[in-house]
TrEMBL record:
Pfam families: CP_ATPgrasp_2 (PF14403)
Name of the protein: Circularly permuted ATP-grasp type 2 domain-containing protein
Domain of life: Bacteria
Residues covered by the Circularly permuted ATP-grasp type domain: 78-457
Organism: Simplicispira suum
InterPro entries associated with the record: ATP-dep_Glu-Cys_Ligase-2 (IPR051680), CP_ATPgrasp_2 (IPR025841), UCP005522 (IPR016450)
SUPFAM superfamilies, A to Z: Glutathione synthetase ATP-binding domain-like
Length: 485
């Protein structure tokens, strides 16, 4: 299977060369001593720990208990993307997120794509993430996924060229943007000379773009919208990010107990009394938002919230019910959504996918389990997944039995050899597999900062980059065209 390295290209007659957009960095790196780089790594770890940039790791995926707080390992070697590569990726991301928002509006209103048979109706209407409560509810600008985290991987084609694929769409409560921002601050602190040598596109304005997007989603008539960030609380694995983004945007961080609904409007308690809330950037799953509608007894949300939302008196970002569009069983149909709603061919390709709900696909998957990646359609965080080439025979047989019992709960994909990037590990500098999560904001327009969160699988040969599975992160540099601002 051909492999693709972000920094090095393999020469036809052996050896390797540095890719053009990495040359200046490679020359700089060659001048650095191991001791100097190790000192900077330790400095980064000390600062991250002091600032409290941690991630809660739970014992099991179903555990409700607070996990152990640990740092997400940060690597000093950036992942660099050329201006030309980014321009194409950005076009593809805008196209994809636009189509996904059109799909969400459609399935909760006219359902044209279901009637046309492009997407099977039962796949949507019987999906656990489809919320009948949202049928007919109008949301500002028709935007459901205001913040989308689209996972991108690169793999070599038969000619050895790197091709970008969308691995999955995260439209419910995508996380990780705080690490993108903190990684950049750390790199600028440790290596200011590198930023004077490279025209790296900035990312620090993301909180401003986020706040602008949230304010644009406010109900009509909100002249100066009040925005809050709703967190499940300090025991949530991404609590650092919730607090960080609230602080960066200059808005209140609230929990469900801080909110109440009165006369169809949402208010938060303050030292000066009740203040009306216009926009809630919620980091709480649908099931916990309103105990009077969804999961009774939930203390993470606010009773009456859905009534105020359906009346158009408060905006929720992301909208309730967006999960139906990022379900892995719906993912294979996104290219068809782009064609149906936009009349365009997809700029970014999907990873080829077998839908085990289809008998012919299931037959192929069962016959090739040792070669494939099998995923639960509702799985996340690297859980509920089989990586065939790295699995034991017992693990393969366990998945075989699960597939036969409930084929509709799984999809399968080829085992892509994700692109690698030089990474500091115990033995020194070595290639490790990476992915990329750009964060796409949809308000009056679709926009994003140039880059995203690069996640890296630190174990040799591993393809699992998730932080919950021991992955690390890198700063992502998008190089600007020479002479551009």
């Amino acid at each position: 299977m051909p492999k693709f390295d972000e920094m090095y290209t393999v020469l036809p007659f052996g050896g390797s060369d540095v890719r053009a957009h990495y040359k200046r960095y490679a020359e700089w790196l060659a001048r650095q001593s191991d001791a100097s780089m190790e000192a900077r790594r330790l400095e980064a770890e000390m600062i991250f720990r002091r600032v409290g940039i941690t991630f809660a790791v739970y014992g099991t995926k179903d555990s409700g208990a607070a996990g152990n707080e640990r740092l997400i390992p940060f690597d000093l070697v950036p992942r660099i993307i050329s201006a030309q590569e980014w321009a194409r990726m950005e076009r593809g991301l805008v196209q994809r997120v636009t189509a996904l928002n059109r799909f969400l509006h459609d399935v909760y209103h006219e359902q044209d794509i279901l009637r046309a048979g492009i997407v099977p109706a039962d796949l949507v209407l019987k999906n656990a993430q489809y919320r009948p409560e949202m049928a007919g509810v109008e949301v500002p600008r028709g935007v459901y996924a205001h913040i989308a985290g689209i996972d991108i991987v690169r793999a070599a084609n038969a000619q050895g060229d790197g091709v970008f694929y969308v691995l999955e769409d995260n439209l419910r409560v995508p996380s990780g943007v705080s690490y993108m921002l903190e990684n950049r601050k750390m790199m600028m602190r440790l290596f200011p000379d590198l930023f004077s040598m490279h025209a790296v596109a900035p990312v620090a304005h993301y909180p401003d773009l986020l706040l602008e997007t949230l304010r644009e989603s406010a109900p009509a008539g909100s002249a100066d919208p009040c925005v809050v960030v709703l967190t499940p609380g300090m025991h949530n694995s991404a609590y650092f990010e919730h607090a960080f983004l609230a602080q960066q945007m200059g808005v209140e961080l609230v929990e469900g107990q801080d909110l109440r609904v009165k006369d169809g409007f949402v208010y938060m308690g303050t030292t000066r009394g009740l203040q009306r809330v216009d926009v809630i950037y919620r980091r709480v799953d649908d099931d916990y938002l309103d105990p009077s509608v969804f999961r009774a007894g939930s203390t993470l949300g606010c009773a009456g919230l859905m009534e105020a939302y359906a009346a158009g008196n408060v905006a929720l970002c992301n909208a309730v019910g967006t999960g139906v569009a990022d379900d892995k069983s719906v993912y294979p149909y996104v290219p068809d959504m782009i064609r149906f709603y936009l009349g365009e061919e997809p700029v970014l390709e999907n990873v080829p996918t077998w839908m085990c709900r289809k008998p012919e696909d299931l037959k192929y998957v069962l016959a090739h389990l040792p070669e494939l990646v099998v995923k639960e359609v509702h799985g996340a965080g690297g859980y509920g997944m089989l990586i065939g080439p790295a699995a034991s025979q017992s693990e393969i047989e366990q998945f075989r039995n699960a597939l036969i019992a409930n084929p509709a709960l799984y999809i399968a994909q080829p085992t892509l050899s994700l692109s690698s990037c030089p990474t500091y590990v115990e033995s020194g500098l070595a290639p490790r597999h990476i992915d990329l999560r750009p964060f796409v904001l949809s308000g009056s327009e679709v926009q994003m900062v140039s880059g995203g969160l690069t996640r890296v699988a630190l174990a040799e040969g591993s393809l699992v980059v998730n932080s919950s599975q021991g992955g690390g992160t890198k700063d992502t540099w998008v190089l600007q065209e020479e002479g551009s601002e």
